[in-house]
Write a structure and sequence with these properties.
It is a single chain. This protein is mainly alpha-helical. The protein has one domain. The chain is built from three helices and no strands. Helix 2 packs antiparallel against helix 3.
Length: 86
């Protein structure tokens, strides 16, 4: 539901406002991180629905490739937003 919101998808546009301040940057950095975390949850939550007992769920090779990709997204997030913080 959150990813469907235009305001969330295009949160970077808010930072182009002349009224944007350091608090806006901090809040929107968390929005960006939340987007990544939501993708991770969506990916792995879908795998869990196939199991009655989620402790029996196992990762496969494709899952590890997704984990590396998500890890890179978080690294890029950290680099992008660290440079923007005052």
């Amino acid at each position: 539901m959150i990813s469907e919101s235009q305001q969330i998808r295009e949160h970077e546009l808010f930072l182009q406002s002349p009224h944007a301040n350091s608090l806006d940057f901090r809040i929107l950095s968390q929005v960006a991180l939340f987007q990544i975390m939501s993708k991770i949850q969506d990916h792995f939550e879908g795998k869990m629905t196939h199991y009655q007992d989620t402790t029996r769920a196992q990762l496969n090779d494709d899952d590890f490739a997704h984990m590396r990709s998500f890890n890179l997204e978080i690294d890029h997030w950290r680099i992008r937003w660290h440079a923007r913080q005052s």
